[in-house]
Specification:
The protein is α/β, with parallel strands linked by helices and 310 residues long. The strands form two sheets. A seven-stranded parallel β-sheet has the order 1-2-3-4-5-6-8. Strands 7-9 form a two-stranded antiparallel sheet. Strand 1, helix 2 and strand 2 form a beta-alpha-beta unit. The protein starts with 11 loop residues before the first helix and ends in a 12-residue tail after the last helix. The N terminus and C terminus are likely disordered.
């Protein structure tokens, strides 16, 4: 029988301990990719919330080899918490968008490190062609492979507003293709709460949509407003407001009730670069956020608590 590290949900820590028998940490790697929403193929400028680093603020420099990046990332992680095993996380931009042969070599290079136990590859659902899936199928035969797909919202109007440049159907087809061609791959969906114009119902509908697609895991965070983004200009012009800590916790607690216990909740908060954070400022201290969240959840069972009133 599966046991949880807390009574609230099946966390990434639970999942990795169950799978590997020990705690693992992710090391952020830059594969040197860009995005079809930046180079003009689909759009220009990227999603309105995306930072200049492609949402990979903690990734190492692409000027170094993958193995060199791993070594630098290990030192950063081990300065905070000691670990002996890691997952190489190709995080920023779209990490299946580029020369698949070159990308395959970089993924294999990461797997060659003796203390790396698997890969996590973040990308867009419209960047998974047959060649990519063929490589995924090959690598996942003998290695743990996690695919992280951005969705953010299932509200198509919001998707257009944030300049996502792909549809819900792209996401549906991507998950189906992965499940069919490389079923060993652990598929994770990224979701953002607090996007401009969205109501609580929209956020919870996104959770329901993700669950319906037979995903294996989910990442949830509140919307961050970073310096230098289109979103920052919208925020300054008061076109939307960010969620308070209490609002986010309440919506999150309702979302968790909708997620089956077999789906891993890999993230319930994030920690972007403080130097670039405009709002919400309460997210800047991740330790405080997690402690406050646990206190909130401990006041009632998040799977049986009262309905969200926002």
């Amino acid at each position: 029988m599966r046991t949880f590290s807390n009574n609230h949900f099946f966390s990434s820590s639970d999942f990795f301990k169950q799978k590997f028998g020990f705690k693992v940490y992710k090391l952020c790697i830059d594969a040197g990719c860009t995005c079809p929403n930046r180079d003009g193929t689909k759009g220009i400028g990227g999603c309105i919330f995306c930072s200049g680093s492609g949402s990979g603020d903690f990734a190492q420099s692409r000027e170094f080899s993958v193995l060199e990046q791993l070594e630098k990332a290990k030192k950063l992680v081990n300065s905070k918490c000691k670990s002996n095993k890691y997952i190489a996380y190709f995080q920023n931009f779209s990490n299946t968008y580029g020369d698949i042969n070159l990308l395959k070599e970089k993924w294999k290079e990461a797997l060659s490190a003796p203390d790396v136990v698997g890969l996590s590859i973040a990308t867009r659902p419209d960047c998974l062609d047959d060649k990519v899936l063929e490589v995924f199928s090959e690598l996942s035969q003998n290695n743990f492979l996690m695919l992280e797909l951005g969705l953010q919202t299932c509200n198509e109007e919001t998707g257009n507003l944030i300049n996502r440049c792909y549809s819900n159907q792209d996401f549906v087809q991507a998950v189906r293709a992965v499940k069919k061609n490389c079923p060993q791959v652990h598929v994770v969906s990224h979701v953002i709460f607090g996007l401009p114009g969205e109501k609580v119902e929209d956020m919870l509908d996104t959770i329901k949509f993700c669950v319906k697609q037979n995903i294996d895991g989910i990442k949830i965070s509140t919307l961050y407003v970073n310096k230098g983004t289109v979103l920052e200009k919208m925020y300054e012009q008061k076109e939307f407001g960010s969620l308070s800590k209490e609002e986010y916790f309440e919506i999150l607690s309702e979302a968790i009730k909708l997620i089956p216990e077999n789906i891993v909740i890999h993230r319930v908060t994030g920690d972007g670069a403080k130097r670039d954070l405009v709002a919400p400022l309460w997210t800047a201290n991740k330790k405080d956020v997690l402690n406050s969240m646990n206190n909130y959840f401990n006041r009632f069972d998040v799977r049986q608590g009262s309905s969200c009133s926002l």
